[in-house]
Amino acid sequence: MTASTGSWSYALIRDMKVPAYQFIKTEVAVVMRDKYPKARYHFLVIPWADIDSVYQLSPEDIPLLNEMRLLGVNAIESTGKSQDIFRMGFHMQPSMHRLHLHVISQDFVSDRLRYKEHFNSFVTEFFMPFESIVLELQDKGRIEQRSKELIEHLLRVPLACNQCDFPCNTLPQLKKHLESHLDS
Ligand code: AMP
Ligand code: ZN
After folding, report:
1. Does the beta carbon of 91 sit less than 6 angstroms from any atom of ligand 1?
2. What pTM did the predictor assign?
């Protein structure tokens, strides 16, 4: 089946236009709360410009990226939490259309974190930090597509806590462990 614009993978493009979902809205981009948050705080910054993913970016888009980052900072400020507990970046292989910057707290305590791949997509190199995307655009003029093998490898690496490297055999074990960091 070819993906139509009615498909789930176009939901960000549809929902960013819905006022109720616009946590912050500017002429450049919209900040939405992630509908299936993988941590206590998880926002998406989505530009109005029709850019499908990081792989369509060019160095001329760096000012837009910087605007998106500032909106991410605004979203973090709205939580009243320290900037230090957040990371901003892009997935190496996004599942949804339209460029989206993840702004996510590093606790990974969420009912929506249901698969090993969910966790690994945020704690391995699969999560491409904002700064590294800007640097790659400056150095190479574009974001180079990563290999299928690398992508599959990163999503399947053994589970280990992102805060203390504690290895976990199963996701339930990891989730329990992550909750213990919240209390400490
Ligand atoms: P990615 O894997 O980088 O494409 O991430 C897509 C993100 O969009 C995931 O974190 C999803 O939980 C989130 N998501 C999916 N549908 C929606 C939606 N309709 N509104 C807000 N966030 C969504
Ligand atoms: Zn730990």
Report:
1. yes
2. 0.97
